[in-house]
Amino acid sequence: MGWRFFMHRKNLAKRINTMLTILLLLLLIPLFLTIFCQKMQLEELLGNVNRTAEKEEDADMLFCIVAKEISADAPEECIKAQCVIARTNLKAAEEMGTELPGSMTMGELQELWGDYFSEAEGKIREAIQETDGETLQYRNHYIYAAYHAVSAGNTRNMEELYPDSDMPYLSGVACYEDAQAPDYLSVLYLDQEITIEEKDSAGYVTKAQMNGKSYTGEELRGELGLKSANFNVTELEPGKIRIVTKGHGHGFGLSQYTAQKMAEKGEDYRKILQYFFPGTELENVE
Questions:
Q1: pTM above 0.85, yes or no
Q2: What is the radius of gyration, based on Cα positions, of the chain?
Q3: Considering the domain boundaries, does residue 168 fall inside one?
Q4: Which among 103, 136, 177 is positioned nearest to 278, based on CA atoms?
Q5: 188 sits in which H/E element
Q6: Within a domain: residue 235?
Q7: Digits of tens for pLDDT over the chain (286 positions)?
Q8: How does DSSP classify residue 116?
Q9: Which of 1, 39, 152, 163 has the fewest C-beta atoms under 10 angstroms from its C-beta?
Q10: How many domains would you assign to the chain?
């Protein structure tokens, strides 16, 4: 009798412990779920805050780049096109770990724009916002979004100069109105001996000699401070020459002057970019 009573009490105690354990779990599980959900919500909130901060930081960086690359007086669609170009080159540099595009500081911009600062800043930031996240891509990769101020009448074909470059989107397009640009022509007189040996189909010098030394067109352009490598040399007398240069910049990609003329005729930034970078796609990366 005593043994049965003892076992009964023991089993009863086990059942009570089990029931208490279940009851405790029933009470704690909602608490744990609440804490877990709150933790997830907090992490999501912090993640959103961090992403917002990163996006604002990227927008500030992009603003300082675009402000260096194009005048705030340019047409709105032209500035938008430049925003896409700048964002593409920035993302490509970040992805490859190469040098970021050049930019200006806020202090330099305030000095440059003076009383016009607020208006100029607003115009560029609006263009950045209206092209938010858009980049130019070819075969799912960021392109080399080249640009220059004024072409010599046609932009250059990259694969003509570098056959293995795989940049068919830099194929060269007509920019006849560039001949109307204020700085289309420039003239320089020098006491040098220069012989042009090769040019590309757009008229840019690719190989030349100066005083017996070989140069590429871009090297000679840098050496002499020419606006572009599209130039002709006329010997006036032994040792004295005249150099007439066409255009301003390397001549690849988008001509800002022609882009401006297209914008003035009502073309939007998408059409402008497709004209200068045929075969590319506008892709949003944010």
A1: no
A2: 32
A3: no
A4: 136
A5: strand 185-190
A6: no
A7: 555 544 455 566 667 667 766 776 677 677 666 665 565 554 444 443 334 434 456 899 999 999 999 999 999 999 999 999 999 999 999 999 999 999 999 999 999 999 999 999 999 999 999 999 999 999 999 999 999 999 999 999 999 999 999 999 999 999 999 999 999 999 999 999 999 999 999 999 999 999 999 999 999 999 999 999 999 999 999 889 999 999 999 999 999 999 999 999 999 999 999 999 999 999 998 6
A8: G
A9: 1
A10: 1
Rounded distance between C-alpha atoms, residue 208 and residue 228, angstroms: 14
In eight-state DSSP terms, residue 102 is P
Distance CA 148, CA 279 (A): 20
In order of 47, 84, 211, 252, the CA distances from 161 in angstroms are 46, 25, 24, 11
> What burial class does residue 190 get, using C-beta atoms within 10 Å of its C-beta: 0-12 exposed, 13-18 middle, 19+ buried?
middle
- The set of long-range contacts for 52-55, using a CB threshold of 8 Å and a minimum separation of 24, is 55/286
Domain carrying residue 286: 1-153+250-286
Paired tokens of 154: 């046609």
Closest by alpha carbon to 253, among 186, 127, 165, 130?
165
156 burial (CB, 10 Å; 0-12 / 13-18 / 19+) is buried
Q: Tokens for 223, please give them.
A: 């050496």
Q: How far apart are CA 101 and CA 92, in angstroms?
A: 10
Task: Give the span between the Cα atoms of 190 and 236, in whole angstroms.
Answer: 10
Indicate whether 162 belongs to any domain.
Answer: no
30 is a domain residue? yes
In whole angstroms, give the CA distance from residue 26 to residue 32. Answer: 10
Q: What's phi and psi for 199, nearest 5 deg? A: -135, 155
